[in-house]
Design a protein that fits this description.
The protein has 176 residues and is mainly α. It has a domain of 121 residues. It has a two-stranded antiparallel sheet with strand order 1-2. The two termini are 34 Å apart. Belongs to the MTFP1 family.
Amino acid sequence: MKPANHKYCRMSKNSGTDNLVTDTNDKGTVDVFRDTPLRYLGYANEVGEAFRPVIDEKLVWGSYGVASLYVLADTVSKAVTVWRNEHPSSRFKESVKTGVDVLVWQSFASVIIPGFTINRICALSSYLLRRSPVKKYSKPMTVAIGLCSIPLIIHPIDRGVDFAMDRSVRPILRGI
Protein backbone atom coordinates (compact mmCIF):
# COMPACT_ATOMS: atom_id res chain seq x y z
CA MET A 1 0.00 0.00 0.00
CA LYS A 2 2.11 2.82 -1.30
CA PRO A 3 0.67 6.28 -0.69
CA ALA A 4 -0.51 8.41 -3.54
CA ASN A 5 2.14 10.43 -5.33
CA HIS A 6 1.89 13.59 -3.30
CA LYS A 7 3.93 16.77 -3.41
CA TYR A 8 6.10 18.23 -0.72
CA CYS A 9 6.54 21.89 -0.32
CA ARG A 10 10.07 22.16 -1.60
CA MET A 11 10.09 25.17 -3.84
CA SER A 12 12.04 25.47 -7.05
CA LYS A 13 12.32 28.16 -9.66
CA ASN A 14 11.08 26.92 -13.03
CA SER A 15 10.50 29.49 -15.76
CA GLY A 16 10.35 32.25 -13.18
CA THR A 17 7.47 30.74 -11.19
CA ASP A 18 7.45 28.84 -7.95
CA ASN A 19 6.47 25.22 -8.46
CA LEU A 20 6.22 22.35 -6.07
CA VAL A 21 8.68 19.57 -6.67
CA THR A 22 7.75 16.01 -5.86
CA ASP A 23 9.70 14.12 -3.23
CA THR A 24 13.10 12.52 -3.68
CA ASN A 25 11.60 9.43 -5.31
CA ASP A 26 11.63 11.35 -8.59
CA LYS A 27 15.42 11.23 -8.33
CA GLY A 28 15.44 7.46 -8.01
CA THR A 29 16.23 7.29 -4.30
CA VAL A 30 14.32 5.20 -1.80
CA ASP A 31 12.31 7.15 0.74
CA VAL A 32 12.37 4.98 3.85
CA PHE A 33 9.13 6.55 5.10
CA ARG A 34 7.20 5.99 1.88
CA ASP A 35 8.78 3.10 -0.04
CA THR A 36 9.52 0.55 2.68
CA PRO A 37 7.43 -1.42 5.16
CA LEU A 38 8.05 1.41 7.65
CA ARG A 39 5.15 3.14 5.84
CA TYR A 40 2.76 0.73 7.55
CA LEU A 41 3.45 2.41 10.90
CA GLY A 42 1.44 5.32 9.56
CA TYR A 43 -1.56 2.98 9.43
CA ALA A 44 -1.23 1.83 13.04
CA ASN A 45 -4.12 3.97 14.24
CA GLU A 46 -6.46 2.54 11.58
CA VAL A 47 -5.60 -0.95 12.79
CA GLY A 48 -6.17 0.21 16.38
CA GLU A 49 -9.57 1.61 15.42
CA ALA A 50 -10.51 -1.62 13.65
CA PHE A 51 -9.62 -3.64 16.77
CA ARG A 52 -11.34 -1.18 19.16
CA PRO A 53 -14.29 -3.56 19.82
CA VAL A 54 -11.99 -6.31 21.12
CA ILE A 55 -8.99 -4.57 22.71
CA ASP A 56 -8.36 -2.23 25.61
CA GLU A 57 -8.87 1.49 24.93
CA LYS A 58 -5.26 2.18 25.96
CA LEU A 59 -4.01 0.03 23.06
CA VAL A 60 -6.13 2.02 20.63
CA TRP A 61 -4.59 5.27 21.92
CA GLY A 62 -1.18 3.61 21.76
CA SER A 63 -1.76 2.92 18.06
CA TYR A 64 -2.31 6.67 17.60
CA GLY A 65 1.00 7.24 19.37
CA VAL A 66 2.79 4.93 16.93
CA ALA A 67 1.21 6.64 13.91
CA SER A 68 2.02 10.08 15.33
CA LEU A 69 5.66 9.14 15.89
CA TYR A 70 5.79 7.97 12.27
CA VAL A 71 4.41 11.35 11.15
CA LEU A 72 6.94 13.26 13.24
CA ALA A 73 9.84 11.10 12.03
CA ASP A 74 8.87 11.64 8.39
CA THR A 75 8.50 15.38 9.00
CA VAL A 76 11.92 15.70 10.61
CA SER A 77 13.51 13.52 7.94
CA LYS A 78 12.17 15.64 5.07
CA ALA A 79 13.04 18.93 6.79
CA VAL A 80 16.59 17.75 7.54
CA THR A 81 17.02 16.59 3.94
CA VAL A 82 16.03 20.04 2.67
CA TRP A 83 18.28 21.67 5.28
CA ARG A 84 21.27 19.66 4.02
CA ASN A 85 20.56 20.33 0.34
CA GLU A 86 19.60 24.01 0.36
CA HIS A 87 21.87 26.98 0.04
CA PRO A 88 22.71 28.34 3.54
CA SER A 89 20.86 31.58 2.83
CA SER A 90 17.53 29.81 2.29
CA ARG A 91 17.89 26.53 4.17
CA PHE A 92 15.99 27.59 7.30
CA LYS A 93 12.99 28.95 5.42
CA GLU A 94 12.83 26.06 2.94
CA SER A 95 13.23 23.36 5.60
CA VAL A 96 10.48 24.93 7.74
CA LYS A 97 8.17 25.15 4.71
CA THR A 98 8.87 21.52 3.87
CA GLY A 99 8.36 20.45 7.49
CA VAL A 100 5.03 22.26 7.69
CA ASP A 101 3.85 20.72 4.43
CA VAL A 102 4.82 17.19 5.44
CA LEU A 103 3.46 17.55 8.98
CA VAL A 104 0.08 18.84 7.81
CA TRP A 105 -0.20 16.31 4.97
CA GLN A 106 0.82 13.33 7.10
CA SER A 107 -1.35 14.42 10.05
CA PHE A 108 -4.46 14.54 7.91
CA ALA A 109 -3.70 11.72 5.44
CA SER A 110 -2.17 9.22 7.88
CA VAL A 111 -3.77 9.92 11.25
CA ILE A 112 -6.79 12.22 11.49
CA ILE A 113 -8.98 11.40 8.49
CA PRO A 114 -8.24 7.64 8.25
CA GLY A 115 -8.65 7.16 12.01
CA PHE A 116 -11.99 8.96 12.00
CA THR A 117 -13.12 7.10 8.87
CA ILE A 118 -12.31 3.62 10.22
CA ASN A 119 -13.84 4.57 13.58
CA ARG A 120 -17.11 5.53 11.88
CA ILE A 121 -17.11 2.48 9.58
CA CYS A 122 -16.64 0.23 12.59
CA ALA A 123 -19.25 2.07 14.67
CA LEU A 124 -21.84 1.75 11.90
CA SER A 125 -20.91 -1.90 11.26
CA SER A 126 -21.18 -2.71 14.95
CA TYR A 127 -24.52 -0.93 15.24
CA LEU A 128 -25.98 -2.82 12.27
CA LEU A 129 -24.48 -6.19 13.17
CA ARG A 130 -25.76 -6.05 16.76
CA ARG A 131 -29.26 -5.67 15.34
CA SER A 132 -28.90 -8.53 12.86
CA PRO A 133 -29.26 -12.30 13.12
CA VAL A 134 -25.45 -12.59 13.40
CA LYS A 135 -25.20 -10.36 16.49
CA LYS A 136 -23.28 -13.12 18.25
CA TYR A 137 -20.37 -12.45 15.88
CA SER A 138 -20.71 -8.67 15.72
CA LYS A 139 -17.34 -7.87 17.36
CA PRO A 140 -15.10 -10.07 15.17
CA MET A 141 -17.09 -9.10 12.09
CA THR A 142 -16.69 -5.42 12.96
CA VAL A 143 -12.92 -5.92 13.26
CA ALA A 144 -12.86 -7.72 9.89
CA ILE A 145 -14.88 -4.97 8.20
CA GLY A 146 -12.59 -2.31 9.68
CA LEU A 147 -9.42 -4.09 8.56
CA CYS A 148 -10.80 -4.73 5.07
CA SER A 149 -11.76 -1.06 4.76
CA ILE A 150 -8.22 0.25 5.33
CA PRO A 151 -6.85 -0.49 1.83
CA LEU A 152 -10.01 0.98 0.28
CA ILE A 153 -9.75 4.36 1.99
CA ILE A 154 -6.01 5.10 1.73
CA HIS A 155 -5.67 6.36 -1.83
CA PRO A 156 -8.89 8.42 -1.92
CA ILE A 157 -7.88 10.10 1.35
CA ASP A 158 -4.34 10.76 0.07
CA ARG A 159 -5.73 12.32 -3.10
CA GLY A 160 -8.30 14.34 -1.16
CA VAL A 161 -5.66 15.72 1.21
CA ASP A 162 -3.45 16.58 -1.78
CA PHE A 163 -6.37 18.38 -3.41
CA ALA A 164 -7.19 20.33 -0.24
CA MET A 165 -3.57 21.24 0.46
CA ASP A 166 -2.96 22.32 -3.15
CA ARG A 167 -5.77 24.82 -2.65
CA SER A 168 -5.01 25.97 0.89
CA VAL A 169 -1.72 25.33 2.68
CA ARG A 170 0.60 25.03 -0.31
CA PRO A 171 -0.28 28.37 -1.94
CA ILE A 172 0.33 30.04 1.42
CA LEU A 173 3.71 28.30 1.75
CA ARG A 174 4.53 29.18 -1.84
CA GLY A 175 3.95 32.84 -1.04
CA ILE A 176 6.33 32.88 1.88
